[in-house]
Design brief:
Order of helices and strands: EEHEEHEEEHEEHHHHHHHHHHHEHH
Number of helices: 16
Largest sheet: 3 strands, antiparallel
Helix content: 40-55%
Radius of gyration: 22 Å
Distance between the termini: 30 Å
Strand order of the largest sheet: 2-1-10
Strand content: 5-15%
Number of strands: 10
Shape: elongated
Bound molecules: zinc ion
Number of domains: 2
Structural class: mainly alpha
Length: 493
């Protein structure tokens, strides 16, 4: 999670030698994935299908991660296994009612689809919905103009037996071009969207339900709208982050209309799971020509779009995102050590930092004595997820202490959401690029915020009996809110 600047050591990271996190985590995480796809070649405007794909699909959750830019070796994602689950913090007050799912007060007009869906496997209607979304929203994104639907024969669900695939720039696509991937491209023959229908999409459906393929399709048609809006002259990570944001805007449009699969808040949890499963390998650089973003960055972009719509996504540029991206390249020390700081060492370094940060929120801050039972729980999470699992768990405890000192409730789901916001705010100054705020000894390192999301997933999973569908999305949103907007956004009063 963090590294001690100026000294030869660092903590964390997901690419630690202990390998994949195993356990029930995954079923929650499961949903989000696919929109990782494709990278833009700024010269041709092609969203390259194969960029970032593992050359050899690895066995396990990450194997078919079309967005991961590094091959198999990386990305130890949580995968089911025999490793015993770590104990996880419980939300203290199960008698509290679950988080309310607030129905929209005014449902938009039902959409009337008169268009013939493309011959795109079982996803033809999803394509029609995405294009209907763009028919309504293109001008808000691009500033003017209208979305031009793709020719039906340029929307291609590819299966292994296809022998008559369309051409791009006079070169006929082959099945291997699309294996385990999806992409959008500008071709002389017309803009094109294609995906691996009988491997990638089947797998995504099994892991994330219809949300998985739907989000990938939304991400790719986000690229199509970028083509048509002429906004490709940006770093790849900006283009990819914007496509994730646009996919989030589509999810909200579906949610508002209660259209399957977004008629159920569980789809949003699935979206978080699948998004983080498609993250770039920790240690990747956001400046990498294939960068899509860390898991946290990708979820943040999706949630930006979900909450604020295509107009907000249109503001994405290098300047805006440079203050947001947590995709941090490994330092030389990270590479040498695997990035993990020992548990006790981490506690000793992070404890005084949180003491300082939270102490600024409360007059006469008494400090926090860490309970031995907590330490045992955190040690297990630390070893399975990485050192920022400990960082997140500690931040939640400090947040609870701040609540108590301020006379606020520290139990139940509402309090937990606030603690998560406070944790996000506490991590924020650890982006080393924020001058004047970064403590002189600590900074986030690659994968840390992904570990925070994974840890939240574990906590949510372990408390599922008292939580409503959609809670994972909500709690990650709180982490993002605190991280983006600071303590004042967390409602301490
Ligand atoms: Zn993409």
């Amino acid at each position: 999670m963090m590294e001690l600047l100026g000294t030869p050591r660092s903590f964390i990271c997901m690419s630690t030698p202990q390998g994949p996190i195993r356990g029930r985590l995954v079923s929650l995480l499961v949903v989000t994935a696919v929109f990782a796809v494709g990278c833009v070649n700024p010269e041709s405007g092609v969203i390259d299908a194969t960029a970032g794909l593992p050359e050899t699909p690895a066995v396990g959750v990450e194997a078919d991660n079309p967005g991961a830019q590094t091959p198999a070796e990386a990305n130890p994602l949580p995968a089911p296994s025999n490793v015993p689950d770590a104990p996880v913090p419980s939300l203290d007050d199960p008698s509290m009612p679950p988080v309310e799912e607030t129905p929209a007060l005014d449902f938009p007009e039902p959409i009337l689809i008169t268009e013939e869906p493309p011959d795109a496997g079982v996803w033809g209607e999803t394509v029609v919905l995405v294009e209907a979304f763009w028919g309504e929203n293109f001008a808000a994104f691009a500033g003017s103009g209208a979305y031009r639907p793709l020719d039906r024969d340029r929307i291609v669900a590819v299966d292994d037996n296809d022998s008559d695939l369309p051409a791009c720039d006079r070169s006929r696509l082959s099945v291997s071009d699309i294996e385990q991937n999806a992409f959008a491209a500008v071709c002389r023959e017309g803009q094109l969207v294609a995906w691996d229908d009988d491997d990638l999409f089947v797998d995504l459906f099994e892991r994330f339900g219809a949300t998985g393929p739907a989000i990938v399709i939304a991400h790719e048609f986000g690229h199509v709208s970028q083509f048509q809006a002429g906004v490709l002259n940006q770093a790849t990570v900006v283009i990819e982050q914007q496509a994730d944001c646009l996919a989030g805007a589509f999810a909200r449009w579906m949610d508002d209309r209660q259209i399957v699969p977004f008629d159920n808040a569980a789809a949003l949890d699935a979206a978080v799971g699948s998004t983080i499963s498609f993250r770039d390998r920790p240690g990747s650089s956001a400046a990498d020509p294939n960068a899509h973003g860390s898991g946290f960055d990708r979820v943040r972009a999706f949630q930006d779009g979900f909450e604020s719509g295509v107009e907000f996504c249109a503001f994405y540029d290098v300047g805006f995102l440079s203050g947001q991206l947590t995709e941090i390249t490994f330092t030389e020390n990270d590479r040498q050590t695997g990035g993990n700081l020992a548990f006790v060492e981490l506690i000793d370094l992070v404890n005084p930092y949180f003491d300082d940060v939270f102490g600024r929120l409360v007059d006469d801050w008494p400090g926090l004595v860490l309970a031995p039972a907590d330490l045992d729980e955190w040690r297990a999470l630390h070893s399975q997820i990485g050192d920022n699992a400990t960082g997140l768990a500690m931040a939640l405890e400090f947040g609870a202490e701040a609540q108590r000192q301020l006379g606020l409730s520290d139990g139940g789901v509402g309090a937990f959401l606030q603690q998560t916001c406070l944790a996000g705010a506490a991590f924020r100054p650890l982006i080393s690029t924020i001058d004047g705020l970064t403590p002189d000894s600590l900074s986030l390192s690659a994968g840390d915020m992904d570990e925070a999301v994974l840890t939240l997933s574990r906590i949510v999973e372990s408390n599922q009996d008292v939580l409503a569908d959609g809670f994972l999305f909500e709690v990650v949103d709180e982490l993002r809110t605190g991280f983006t907007d600071g303590f004042e956004a967390c409602g301490l009063g």
